[in-house]
Amino acid sequence: MTLKQLQEMKTRGEKIAVLTCYDASFATLMEAAGVEVLLVGDSLGMVLQGGKDTLGVTMQDMLYHTDCVAAGAKSAFIITDMPYGSDQSLDLALDNANDLINAGAHMVKLEGAKTETVRYLVQRGIAVCGHLGFTPQSVRQLGGYKVQGRDADTAEKILKDALSLQQAGASMLVLEMVPATLAKQMSQQLSVPVIGIGAGIDCDGQVLVLHDALGMYPGKTLKFTRNFLHENNSIPEALSAYVQAVKNASFPAKEHSF
Ligand code: KIV
């Protein structure tokens, strides 16, 4: 799976199935189920490490898990999150992004409207995915896990930021917890694939945190998640059901959207 193929899927209107992945065994199972993109998310700070947010995740953590995922994946496209604090200067971001690519990532993901950093990395040959809407690394500034872009001004800011990131060279965008109408408009206006989580059905693809998709996270169940293991007999079946539901647009349903 390449960036070009993912871009072609958007053009054809074929939905892209993405899941977070943190180890080799799941990488192999996800590929077999047809998941096209494995996201080594810094959500691992919560679902693997038991943190209350993602802020404590280190570059060492991301390198280790990227290496594990790359060992189990043969053809899936791998995106790794730049953890909190890893992009505080342009050169630090470049060093860290290079390390993640060397560990096996095909693309790095940066939260927020960091246009200058995105441009700097892209000009040096690193593929970058943006992440707008609710950005977990800013949970303290955002005052909790809240839907973003509900009013016209904030919606317009998110759309403008997305266009700036695309202009700076970002070749994919994750859009988290925004109204479905805004996500639809953005998916139509942006030329790069938009992958939604809590962003309604009209995105070019969907991503879920693995532990939410399998009902394995002991915390509160979020409105935009669905437990696919609950409806299936095994993990491989649940992963295939997730891929099917993304492809045939039965997930997310209205009740998972804002
Ligand atoms: O870290 C993560 O798992 C993510 C998803 C929530 C998109 O960034």
Question: Would you give an account of this structure?
Answer:
The chain has eleven helices and eight strands. It is of the alpha/beta class. The chain has one domain (3-256): TIM Barrel, CATH 3.20.20. It has an eight-stranded parallel beta barrel with strand order 1-2-3-4-5-6-7-8, surrounded by seven helices. β4 (107-111), α6 and β5 form a beta-alpha-beta unit. The longest helix has 17 residues, at 152-168. Residues 20, 39, 41-43, 81, 174, 176, 197, 207, 209 line the site of 3-methyl-2-oxobutanoic acid.
Give the N-terminus to C-terminus distance in angstroms. Answer: 31 Å
- Kindly identify the CATH topology: TIM Barrel
User: Using DSSP, what is the number of strands?
Assistant: 8
Question: In this structure, how is the largest beta sheet organized?
Answer: 8 strands, parallel, barrel
Query: Could you give the order of the helices and strands?
Result: HEHEHHEHEHEHHEHEEHH
Low-confidence stretches: none
Shape: globular
Just name the CATH architecture.
Answer: Alpha-Beta Barrel
Please state how the strands of the largest beta sheet are arranged side by side: 1-2-3-4-5-6-7-8
The level-1 CATH class: Alpha Beta
- Distinct ligand kinds: 3-methyl-2-oxobutanoic acid
Number of helices: 11
Mean pLDDT: 97
CATH superfamily: Phosphoenolpyruvate-binding domains
- When the domains are counted, the total is 1
Please compute the radius of gyration using only Cα atoms.
17 Å
The secondary-structure class comes to alpha/beta
Question: What is the percentage of strand-forming residues?
Answer: 5-15%
Considering DSSP H and I runs of 4 or more, what fraction of the residues is helical?
A: 40-55%
